[in-house]
Amino acid sequence: MGTQGYLERLKHNDQCSEVWWDSSPVIYAPYKKHLLDKYPAALAHIEQLMPDDISQPRGFSSVTTNPRLVTAALLDKREYWSSRFSLASLTPAELRKKLYNEVILEGAAALTPLWVHSAQADGWISAQVDPSDVRCSERMTTRGLELHRLAANVMVKVPGSLEGVATVEQLVAQGVSVNVTFCFTVSQFQAGLQAIERGIAMAHSQGIDTRRCKYVITFMIGRFACQPEFTLQAAERGLVLGPEELRWAELLIYQQIQTLVAASKVPVKTLLSSIKVDVDARGHKHCWHLEKTGLTATCYTLTPDVVEFLIERESHGKPVVPASEPWQAPPETLAKLIRIPYFCEAYWRDGIDPYDFGNHEAFINACNEANSAHRRLIDYCVRLCPVAKPFSRSLNAVLAAEYGVLA
Fold first, then answer.
1. How far lies 76's CA from each of 71, 135, 299, 379, in Å?
2. Which among 104, 203, 223, 356 could disulfide-bond with 208, CB atoms 3.0 to 4.6 Å apart, if both were Cys?
3. Sequential DSSP letters for 73-138
4. Architecture of domain 6-403
5. pTM exceeds cut of 0.90
6. What are the domain boundaries of the chain?
7. Span 244-278, pLDDT tens digits
8. Cβ neighbours, 10 Å, residue 330
């Protein structure tokens, strides 16, 4: 029997569970070298989780990216990426799209052997639509189809706003694999499941085969309890939530999500992202997001830092083990949590109206982070491309300021 790592323990619970690489494939090999240099005693575990070739049929099943990760990859090797295009013939907007697409294309190519070997079950790369379009279903659908056409193993990542749910339905109806992201509530999962179900029905009515498509809905678990609104609402009710109670809140929502997904006939998996490693008063690291989940089919997108946490624990002979039996949160913790609207909106199936998906504090903050990376990439492209004629620039500035239009 081979080396037992977190993935093997996870699959012992449910063979349908997966781990994904939460970063650009470009940094996969350098990061593996970093781990080998730092944790030589964990060589076998590193090799088990991270084979030399990311497309080998073991280790990570797929890859997820986002605007922040793509921007970081591009700016880390600026000359490598920008040298691929003739800058003189491109506007900043055109260059930004080409650069973004190129990162996705390279990642998709690296994963294609795994995608083929697994009969399209694995080897996917998530590529996110532009965060600036989060309130426009038409633009997200158009961009989603563009990303879908880049490579057969591209999974389009769509934010779980009201407009995003409509986008998901349209994309699924056209045979697109999707990852519904920026989800923090059971209501969003329910809306996502229903949108995918409607999309599949529309696809079948048009003779589109969806059997090889893949669908996941992402619960950004570690971003839920850290929002100031949660603590503020608790304080207004005379409640103080400790670190463990905040984690219990996230785990209780995960539990509700898993119940909802298990009861659905839609072929969707829960994908956990924003996984957090905590440090207790004695300086010991632990991760409830990994240790109290995974009893039922769950996909995990692991950042390099979380991967290092797993390897560090293995090197110390204290491996991270997923849940082995059902658990219940302390009754007193649940009693406190259900007094707080922020938690109830996320916990109950109809806790939040679809119109307000995009108004949830965690959604807004996640979107702001994505938009910040988006703007950073745009600014980089503006500085790369030739400067427009001064008159044209000044005229555009006046028209934009006064009338909101460009010459």
1. 8, 30, 28, 15
2. 203
3. HHHHTHHHHHTTS-GGG--HHHHHHHHHHHHHHHHHHHHHHHHHHTTTSS--EEEEPPGGGTT-HH
4. Alpha-Beta Barrel (3.20)
5. yes
6. 6-403
7. 999 999 999 999 999 999 999 999 999 999 999 99
8. 11
